[in-house]
Amino acid sequence: MSEPDAGARAERFRRLHAETYPDLLRFVERRVFDGDSEDIVSTVFLTAWRRFDDLPDDARPWLFAVARKTMANRTRGLLRRRALDVRLTAQPRDEGTDDTLRVGARIDLASAWRSLRPADREVLALVAFDGLTGEQAATTLGCRRSTFAMRLGRARQRLQAALADSAHVHDGKEQPSWIRT
Amino acid sequence: MDPHLNDLKQLNSLDPARGREPTAVEWTRSRAMLERVISGRAPQPSPSRPVRRRLVVGVAVAAAGAVAAVTVPSLLPGTAEKAFASWTAAPGSLTGEQVLPQARACAGNGRGGPSTAGPADVLLAEQRGLATLLIMKKDSGVIDLCLSAGPGSDDQLASMSLADGPLPAPPADTVTLETMASVGEGDGRWSDIVGLAGTGVTRVDVRPDGGKSFQASVRNGWWAAWWPGPEGGEADTLTVTVHTATGTTDHRVVDLD
What we know:
The complex is a heterodimer of chains A (181) and B (257). By secondary structure, chain A is mostly helical. Chain A is built from seven helices and no strands.
């Protein structure tokens, strides 16, 4: 590769980093607990540089897929058939934000989320947290778009069913521990 | 996102990384890493760390039925060196009867409920020097991977649950990747790789980048290997070659399902 070509390649890689680093860091931090996120993100970019010529135009799902495998390698002994679980925010959001979901509903939603299988949580998180389209999420999981759509549909059904159960159990009352003082 | 997906929109309020932006320090560190990568000065990716590494020798591991729990493999000091020194690139194939003592030790590791073992329970068994690797199904249906340095229960070095029951076979001429990891520190680091093999797969070879190819074992719909080295814990430093009656195909491990 000539020097100008190498320089242009490096510049494209820097641009990719600038465009995707925050999203990638968030993607990883939603899934790891132990402060390894920067190290995992570094591994992803190292892999991306090695395979830079293979990267698709929409690189973000590809980077997420590498991150997912890297995290699985490190934290789970890599059982690939198991979903990579996604954690939940520890505290309810401040009511003064644009988040209009009332505290009670948020409790029910969190409870329903925790009752789901990790595989359901993973497909829901790719859309709800990571903001991916169905096609991008399918790329991240390494499955067909139709497969992802089916899995997402079922996960949403189970979330709704769990929410219905939760509403029945709580009877609309808020749990004291979640009420802001 | 589809604006009608209100449940997903509401879920967003629970996002643990909502509003999270990299700090100036994180940007600086990441950009510095990027320049090291571009200039070729970046270190190899860190291998998987044995976060919950635990020896299974003499330990009643986890609760019965907790089949998804992983006992990450580990090698005893000293034994690791011996196993490494005697490691061979081509495995010797063993029958269920030949590894019955190891299978019984594996069956008794306490994971997936109490279990006995017969020759037919051994799905795959191979010998590389001192070490025997086997995949076996237990009474509960759990499928375990075990590595041992001898026939006794005290010789069992490592074990890992692979599945909680039979897995669907992949298409005839293809393989899947079920698990891959590296364990250990420094020169004592070793890796394992396990997957499913379609009925048309006759042989599988594994080649670490910059290293020599070695042969995995293929039997009863599974393929597996272990080797001294860190590559099993890296995202994309292995090539897997699948042999069938009609030819061979190379796959980067990152591309395997």
